[in-house]
Amino acid sequence: MDCNLRPYQEEVVQAALRGENSIIWLPTGGGKTRAAVYITKKHLETTANAKVAVLVNKVHLVDQHFAKEFRPYLGSTYKIAAISGDSNEKDLFGCLVKASDLVICTAQILENALINMEEEKHVELTDFTLLVIDECHHTQKESVYNKIMGRYVEKKVRKEGNLPQILGLTASPGTGGNKQLDKAVEHVLQICANLDSVIVSTKEFTPVLQKVVPRPKKQYDIVERRTLDPFGDHLKAMMLMIHEYMPPTVSRRLREMGTQEYEADVVELEKEGVKKENRLIAQCALHLRQYNDALLINDTVRMVDAFRGLDEFYNSRKTKLLDGTDIFLQGLFDENRVELKQLASNDRYENPKLAQLQCTLQEEFNDENSRAILFSKTRRGTHCLFDWVNSNRELQRVNIRAGILTGAGTGANHMTQKFSYSINFSETIKHFRTGILNLLISTSVAEEGLDIPECNLVVRYGLLTNEIAQQQASGRARAMNSVYSVVAEEGGREMRRELTNEYLESLTAKAIDQVQQMSPSEFRRKISGIQQIAVMTRIQAERKKNERKQRYSPSQVQFQCRDCFLLVCSGEDLRKIENTHHVNINPEFERHYIAGGQVVLEKSFEDWEPGGVISCKNCGKEWGMEIKFKKVVTLPCLKIKSFSMKTPGGKSTPRQWKDVEFQVKEFDFLEDMSSHFHDLDLDE
Asked: N or C: which end of the chain has fewer CB within 10 A?
């Protein structure tokens, strides 16, 4: 199959065809991936011992790039392997790379292979002659892309040879949140330095590009403020009662209820309560977050959705009341439950944004061939909107057939989040492509990279994101005369953010233009300076991280349940398996937890399978799940967020296992399991 390019694509591939490192900047729908296929084809044809890796940042993009782009054009001539965390081949990555001309994989798989020194799993950057980095604006800070490119830049600064050519692809590098041009220029230079690349865009063929990627018509569907919100007011009154239950110095620091700022405040407050072992503060903060979530949901979707969330939360806790604080919080909800339920079911006070959204959708779907995507902020929001669409008679009348699209994670909310992958994901996309579904309700997962057929309508509903996500979302409206609608409250935050994003989008273009105007020598000088600083910073950060890991010996670290402060184990009881799962090998630990319902994951793993959810016997806090390892032994696998750590330096609440201040030993099956088996009579 011939890989023909449009004139503007021909223009942007020239630097790469000369063997230079480059970032291609084209809007969503402009055909960046096709340009990358063309460059890859030419590279494989003209480079001795060529080997190409295409890196993506989301699992579903591996298969999409393989099936829709690379295989059709290159599959008959070259050996292509597509590998994601879902494939079983990932453990033989080194062997696969040797046997293939082109590998398409998630960046994490390459990163794991660079670290892993076992022969069949290990690869070096120098094994490749070209690295293609999709959605390359993520190559910054702590991202996996930047870990890989950090090694690359370090090798370059040390003048080590044989590094692969780099090709980055992006619809927008963004401004890094900067609102001044000089700072936006610095941000673009930083991305260029991280990718060791120039940034190229079309100069000669802009009109052709605009024809191929028409800009959707943007409309603001402005909604007047809710005049009366008795349900929301009642929630706020209950929150005030919780404020009064806490010491006055504490509640004075909290910002406005029903906002992201308030959420950030109570998250910090809960940590503070845990560190001071002040259960009253920690629990009040935890419950206030639930009420604030309900206010946010009430502001976005229906009152019943907000009520249902709270009701489920309190239902799950009522059997485990440990002290006066628990009794007060549970009692407060129980006393108000009936009234909240009545308020939530009164249509007179329903969210006016939903009425506006209904009009926008009805208008669009009068045409039975319409396709639309509705972007919402949270996974929970998408489910609430899905229920609303399906129970709305007017929307069913115009024959809306909706599906949900969210990222990885099964909702089982375990440490398996990374691995779990919605089995319906590709099904949903397929049904949307073929017209079985005509409305996708999605979180930001569909804003990036997904090949979704042209939409007539894209609605951003109650969303606050950055200019990159905004451009990607509007880029999904690709049909002729399509509409990009922002449903927002009059003078509300979404409106302000959307307008800021429009400004940042034009600022990004100006910043890129300024970078492109620099003379090659000035550009190289700036990039080189940034890279040298980056290498020094990386070495220092690595040293600090290692020092932090060694700060305490495992025996000095005690783990407490985060909700009831019960001491449950020491750092000596923990082991890590494959650098991913943290298990407790002390048989005594069993008496602290109850194993519950079976965890169901939508894929299987080589060495282990999931068991039941585990929770604190004392307070019911969920701790993780049991895993059956090598079909022989069942071990409790712990979520770090469910615990607080007590060390000689005080208490801490790490968010991730990599933040703990001691070295967790690697799991050694024979050594660590001897205590489990020592009482078996092996002579029988």
From this structure: C
CA 138, CA 173: separation in Å to the nearest integer? 8
User: Residue 11 is encoded by which pair of tokens?
Assistant: 């223009």
- Token pair, residue 64, equals 């999409």
pLDDT digits over 153-173, tens only? 999 999 998 999 999 999 999
Average pLDDT of the chain, as a whole number:
91
Please tell me the number of Cα atoms within 13 Å of 197 on its side-chain side.
33
Query: Max Cα separation, the chain?
Result: 83
**CA 150, 155, 156, 161 torsion: positive or negative?**
negative
Q: Count of alpha carbons within 13 Å of 497, Cβ hemisphere only?
A: 19
Helix (H, G, I), strand (E, B) or coil at 78: coil
pLDDT at residue 411 greater than cutoff 60? no
Query: CA 348 to CA 576: how far, in whole Å?
Result: 55
Q: What is the 3-state secondary structure (H, E, C) of 423-435?
A: CHHHHHHHHHHHC
Q: Is 300 left (phi over 0), alpha (psi -120 to 50) or beta?
A: alpha
How many other CB atoms sit within 10 Å of the CB of residue 573? 19
Interatomic CA distance for residues 214 and 85, integer angstroms:
36
242: amino acid identity, one letter: I
Q: How far apart are CA 597 and CA 610, in angstroms?
A: 11
Looking at the DSSP assignment, which residues form a beta bridge with residue 104? 54, 82
Spatial separation of the C-alpha atoms in residues 570 and 638, rounded to whole Å: 13
How far lies 640's CA from each of 275, 407, 655, in Å?
15, 22, 7
| 621, two tokens | 């806090």
From residue 297, alpha-carbon distances to 353, 420, 493 in Å are 12, 26, 15
Helix (H, G, I), strand (E, B) or coil at 212: helix
DSSP letters of 106-139? EHHHHHHHHH--STTT---GGG-SEEEETTGGG-
Instruction: Calculate the dihedral angle through the C-alpha atoms of 622, 628, 629, 634, rounding to the nearest 10 degrees.
Output: 80
Strands 643-647, 558-561: pairing kind: antiparallel
Q: What is the pLDDT of residues 131-157, one digit of tens each?
A: 999 999 999 999 999 999 999 999 999
In terms of Cα–Cα distance, which of 20, 42, 7 is closest to 198? 20
Residue type, 550: Q
CA–CA distances in Å: residue 490 to residues 141, 225, 297, 407, 495: 36, 6, 18, 31, 8
- The angle at the Cα of 661, spanning 655 to 662, to the nearest 5 degrees, equals 125
Contacts (Cβ under 8 Å, ≥6 apart) of 80: 66, 70, 71, 74, 100, 101, 102, 103, 104
Q: How confident is the model at residue 464 (pLDDT cuts 50, 70, 90)?
A: low
How many Å from the N-terminal Cα to the C-terminal Cα in the chain?
66
Query: Is there a contact between 281 and 273 (Cβ–Cβ < 8 Å)?
Result: yes
Q: What is the pLDDT of residues 501-557, one digit of tens each?
A: 999 999 999 999 999 999 999 999 999 999 999 999 999 999 999 999 999 999 999
Q: Averaged over 636-660, what is the pLDDT?
A: 96
Measuring CA to CA, how many Å separate 182 from each of 188, 343, 407, 513? 10, 52, 35, 12
- Are 551 and 661 spatial neighbours (Cβ–Cβ below 8 Å)? yes
If you write DSSP's letter for every residue of 2-15 in order, what string do you get? -----HHHHHHHHH
pLDDT attached to residue 220: 86
Please tell me whether residue 224 adopts helix, strand or coil conformation.
coil
Length of the chain: 684
Measured distance CA(28)–CA(472) in Å, rounded: 6
Are 53 and 149 in contact, with CB atoms under 8 Å apart? no
Mean pLDDT of 330-348: 97
Indicate if the alpha-carbon torsion angle 167, 170, 172, 177 is positive or negative.
negative
